[in-house]
Every structure is written in C-alpha cells, then in structure tokens.
Amino acid sequence: SETDESSDDIYDTNLTQAEIQKQVNLGNAEIASERKQAALEDSLSNVATAAASGDYEALWLALCSEPLAITDVQQDNVHDYCIAIATAIGNGVQLTVGVLQDIIDDTNSAVAARKAEEARLASTAYAIEQINSAIDSADPDAVVTTLQASAAEISDVDGSSGMEYLVKLSETKTAVGGSLDQAAIQAAVSEVNILIDEQRRVEAVLAE
Q1: What is the dihedral of CA 133, 138, 139, 142, to 10 degrees?
Q2: What's the mean pLDDT when you consider all of the chain?
Q3: Concatenated DSSP letters of the chain
C-alpha cells in the first residue's frame, strides 16, 4: 500500500543517515588518530633535536609535552637525560615513548644513587675531620666516640682502647705531618687491636 511504501522510504532514509554518520565518525576517528600520531612524532623529533644540540630547556619542554605522556621527568636531571638520550641515539636506538620512559627511569635511579653516594662520602669526610679534631684534643673518650661514629666507617673499634688509639693515632699524625685520612686511621686502629690482642694472649698465658 501507499502507507507501507512511505514507511519503507523513511526506513531506508534513516538507515542511509545512520550509515553516513558511521562513516563520518570513522573518518573523524581516523583524522584524530593521524593527528595524534603526528603530534607524537613531532615530540619525539623535538626530543632528539634538543638532546643532540644540548639544549636543556628545549629538552625539558619536549619531554614534558602532552603527546609523550612521560612520567617522573625531573628538571634537575635534564643534563643527565640529555647525555643518556644523545648516547642512545648515537648507538642507533630508535626513540619511542617506551624507550624514553626507560631512559628517564634509569637516569633517575642513577642520579639518585649518585647523590646518595655523594652524601655518604660527605658524611664520612666530616666524620674523619671529627676524628682528627679528637686526636688533637688528646681526649681518649672523644677519640673512641668519633671512631665509633657510623659515618666514619672505621671497623673493629674497641671502646676500652681509647688511650691506645689516641697514642697510636697521635704518633701517626705527627709522622705524616697533617690530618689522617680514613685508610690511615683504620690502619692505626687495626694495628692497635693486633698489639692489644697479642698482649692479652701473653697475659693469659702468664696467668695460667
């Protein structure tokens, strides 16, 4: 009937519109994907260019760009990032988001380890200064206290041997004509310990 034909026409028209919308949506998605990929490639290129030229500010901005979405980028580490990225490129590594993220993570860990080691060395240096000051003060208790400080990293310190350590360290310091370093202090402590152990063994034998 005429009504049925009219209904069919409307149905056919609706299907056609749905199909058109579907194609439009697919086209839009494809365009968006292409734009996203282009933005990603531009960001990767910017990173490579900045690293190759040693431009830290440009590298920082490129690494923080939205298309890369790299996490834990730390501005204080940009110099190290630059070296690591430039080295990777020089070794023929193809930059991708995954590769960059690995470089950032590895560099952050390396920098953190380096800073921790620098802090440890600074702490040890200060502890060694304290030992030298204690030797100068001629105070056996102060000598033992500073030798036992964990930062000094001096092993096998006998708390009852302060005077012996003081005498030996003073002699050693006079001999070298200046402050003692960690190795010299450890050597003096170890020598005193050996002498005291030997003395105690002799005393034990005599006491029998």
Answers
A1: 20
A2: 88
A3: -HHHHHHHHHHHHHHHHHHHHHHHHHHHHHHHHHHHHHHHHHHHHHHHHHHHHT-HHHHHHHHT-TTT------GGGHHHHHHHHHHHHHTTPPP-HHHHHHHHHHHHHHHHHHHHHHHHHHHHHHHHHHHHHHHHHT-HHHHHHHHT-GGG---S--TT-HHHHHHHHHHHHHHHTS---HHHHHHHHHHHHHHHHHHHHHHHHHH-
At 66-87, the pLDDT tens digits run 999 999 999 999 999 999 999 9
Q: How many CA atoms lie within 13 A of 123 on its CB side?
A: 11
Check if the beta carbon of residue 152 is closer than 8 Å to that of residue 131: yes
pTM above threshold 0.85: no
Split at pLDDT 50, 70, 90, the class of 161 is very high
Contact 58, 50 (CB under 8 A): yes
What's the mean pLDDT in 131-146? 97
Whole-angstrom distance, CA of residue 82 vs CA of residue 66: 19
Is 76:86 a contact under the CB 8 Å cutoff?
A: no
Give the position of tokens 């009937």: 1
> Which residue bears the tokens 């023929």?
92
